[in-house]
Amino acid sequence: MRITITGALGAGVTAKDLALHWIAKLGADGARGHAIEYAGEAVRGLSIEGRLTLCNLSIEGGGRLGLVAPDQVTFDYLKGRNFAPKGAAWDAAVADWKLLHSDPDAGFDREVAVDAAPIAPTVTWGTSPEEALPITARVPDPATMSGGKQAQARAALDYMGLEAGMPLESVAVDQVFIGSCTNGRIEDLRLAAKVLAGRQAKVPGLVSPGSAQVKKQAEAEGLAQIFTRAGLEWADAGCSMCVGMNGDLVEAGKRCASSTNRNFKGRQGRGARTHLMSPAMVAAAALTGHLADVRPYLEGRS
């Protein structure tokens, strides 16, 4: 299956928003049984970190795996890293990797086209990654849906404590979480820190880097200090609140803005209510105490 994403992502829109957008469009089983190749200008414009987020979330749309054909962005990322070939071996490796792409006349079982331009920062409102909408939207009305989707939406709204027609930006949160294998990379932390720098969070939150290496790098860059000065807790690397590990839980009935990959019932703790979004959007929710559009908070910040 090939998902071709044309155009460019707008300001404040990330790979996480892109993934939630296509999953909402096709459904949580929209890519069931398929290997997904991501292609198009928007994908080529992503960093390796963004591509990893996109591929990581393929399973949330039913995919077996996600991949992006290697290009110069890939080679630049790998060059000089531990275990990367050196010298002539590097040149030979790159020549070999350049062949790892689909042929121009390759046939796919399914082709999907997505326009990146209209995609806005996106959040989930229900208990599946497919139950996602632009932050500027309202909680949907199950009565407008058909078949099993209607019953699923009613159950989701009941669990999430939401009412149809509510503006998503009016939904208050009790806490926030930035982290996970999906969105705990250095690029994610940099963008969230850009939103939070010099500002104060209105709700408590936890920031858990995706690896020990990322944690060390974030501390060296001063990102950890930005989070703590904003009032958030800087934690060790790990799964943490993504799956409610090591005591990092969301209490029953509490609402969490989270950069993780799943919002199933009880995912962050029994009775926890999880809204998925990008790390930058989580930072905006921390500042406002409710789901919020991050774009105004990035204006003027290069």
List the helices and strands and how they pair.
Layout: E1 2-6, H1 15-26, E2 35-39, H2 41-44, H3 48-56, E3 65-67, H4 72-78, H5 88-97, E4 111-115, E5 122-124, E6 132-134, H6 147-160, E7 175-179, H7 180-183, H8 186-196, E8 205-208, H9 212-220, H10 223-230, E9 233-234, E10 255-258, E11 273-276, H11 279-288, H12 295-298
Parallel strand pairs: 1-2, 1-4, 2-3, 7-8, 7-10, 8-9, 10-11
Antiparallel strand pairs: 5-6
Structural account:
The radius of gyration is 19 Å and the shape is globular. The mean pLDDT is 96. Strands 9-8-7-10-11 form a five-stranded parallel sheet. Helix 8 (186-196) crosses helix 10 (223-230). The protein has three domains: 2-115, 3-Layer(aba) Sandwich (Aconitase, Domain 2); 122-160, no CATH class; 170-298, Aconitase, domain 3, CATH 3.30.499.10. The protein is α/β, with parallel strands linked by helices and 302 residues long. It has helices at residues 15-26, 41-44, 48-56, 72-78, 88-97, 147-160, 180-183, 186-196, 212-220, 223-230, 279-288, 295-298, and strands at 2-6, 35-39, 65-67, 111-115, 122-124, 132-134, 175-179, 205-208, 233-234, 255-258, 273-276. It has twelve helices and eleven strands. The longest helix is centred in the middle third of the chain and has 14 residues, at 147-160.
